Amino acid sequence: MAIKRVLSGMRPSGKLHLGHFHGVLENWLKLQRESECFFFVADWHALTTEYNNPSNIQDNIKEMVIDWLSVGINPEESAVFLQSAIKEHAELHLLLSMITPLSWLERNPTYKEQTEEIKDRDLHTYGFLGYPVLQTADIIIYKADMVPVGIDQAPHLELSREITRRFNFLYGEIFPEPQTLLTETPKLLGTDGRKMSKSYNNSIFLSDPPDVIEKKILPMMTDPARQRRTDKGNPEVCPVYFLHRIYSTPETITWVEQGCKTAGIGCIECKKSLIPSIIKRLEPIQKKRTELIKNPDVVSEVINRGNAKAKQIAQETMTGVRKALKL
Ligand code: TRP
Ligand code: SF4
């Protein structure tokens, strides 16, 4: 069986948190061992919502790529590149925009939700509506077979497949229809019990030093039914328990389950047993991070090499596309 090509991207959101690590990056690491991978920074996509504030994008790109490399994305195996360095994405986006019906974009649930929810800036823009068209260009320009994404991105991928089919129908079978590879994410919540998200200020970052991790875990939300030490708890509703499930040994997890349900242990005790395992797990990642920060040229070099590899494929694809469109 031929080796599959995998492509995925993230908007440059700066430092990554544990939700990104266990939800996305660990999956990338697995795919990196099995397939030919392309991982890119979607900096143009960042502008669809941050067009009024582009000043952080450069720093956010660096921080994010440093995190990718620190967890083990290996530039010898995977191409790590920057969307805006490959102008061919923009050309393909333009051509795809000719064949994408507006109704497909307007009924996109993410578009509907976000234009209603986000009130602090105007998202009724051409670029934001066309977000999935650019995303389609990102994917098919590399003729990617598989796109690993979280469930929130599934509607975009469905649109990408529709746009690809339409292109192939009109101009010939140029692109494989990209398959969505839904990433299974372990249950993990922020310190306040909501989804871990930078904007909620409830995140534990991969780069948080040990004392910060401790300061964030100790006051963390627990089962709200456990008001007093003598109240019995239910670990299944406790964000601390979800972290134990990821970081602790099976023995400790059993100890938490039993101790919590019987009020045999207190929440502080429970949290204190968690903190060192998180710190220990992040230690090698942070060590790598420190090295990379000391050698910023290494990071630029990785991106340059990834860009060169991506560029070559994108150029070849566009030669075929222009021919198919009689351009
Ligand atoms: N929309 C994706 C996100 O917000 C980022 C992205 C852009 C992407 N282009 C892509 C993901 C292509 C996968 C494939 O996370
Ligand atoms: Fe959560 Fe642990 Fe407290 Fe139970 S004992 S509520 S699992 S912190």
Alpha-carbon distance between the termini? 35 Å
Structural class, judged by helices and strands? mainly alpha
Total count of helical runs of at least 4 residues: 14
Overall pLDDT confidence: 96
Quantity of strands, as a count: 5
How many individual domains? Answer: 2
Q: Per the principal axes of the C-alpha atoms, what is the gross shape? A: elongated
Low-pLDDT ranges: none
Work out the strand percent. Answer: 5-15%
CATH superfamily of the largest domain: HUPs
Helical content (DSSP H or I, runs of 4+): 55-70%
CATH architecture label name of the largest domain:
3-Layer(aba) Sandwich
Read across the widest sheet, the strand sequence of neighbours is 1-2-3
Structure description:
Strands 1-2-3 form a 3-stranded parallel β-sheet. It has a two-stranded parallel sheet with strand order 4-5. Helix content is 56%, strand content 8%. With 327 residues, the chain is mainly α. It is elongated, with a radius of gyration of 22 Å. It has 14 helices and 5 strands. Strand 4 (146-149), helix 9 and strand 5 form a beta-alpha-beta unit. The structure holds tryptophan and iron/sulfur cluster. Iron/sulfur cluster (SF4) binds next to helix 11, helix 12 and helix 13. Tryptophan binds at residues 7-11, 42, 45, 135, 138-139, 147, 149, 153.
A few lines on this structure:
The protein has helices spanning 18-34, 43-50, 57-71, 88-99, 102-106, 109-117, 126-129, 131-140, 154-171, 210-217, 239-247, 250-261, 267-294, 296-324; strands spanning 5-10, 36-41, 78-82, 146-149, 179-182.
What are the key terms here?
mainly alpha; Rossmann fold; 2 domains; 3-stranded parallel beta sheet; elongated; binds iron/sulfur cluster
